From TrEMBL:
Record-annotated membrane-spanning stretches: 48-65
Subcellular location: Membrane
Residue span, SLC26A/SulP transporter domain: 19-74
Organism: Helobdella robusta
Protein name: SLC26A/SulP transporter domain-containing protein
Membrane topology: Multi-pass membrane protein
Molecular-function annotations in GO: secondary active sulfate transmembrane transporter activity
UniProt gene name: 20196054
One Pfam assignment: Sulfate_transp
Amino acid sequence: IISFFPFLAILRKYNLTNFLSDCVAGLTVGIMHIPQGMAYGMLANIDPVYGLYSSFFPVIIYFFFGTSRHISIG
């Protein structure tokens, strides 16, 4: 199961003292992805909300199946 869901191995070794720093970093990256996703939607000549979907859901999927702890798809 750990080879299929790499986030389990990462969570087992996670140090809780980094939680606040990781939350701030996640919020910073998330705030950066909002205008970027909206701009992608506008460039494709569709509603900006569809660009938000394309910047949110791939990151969630990559969290479960990706092998990197550093996730910023853009």
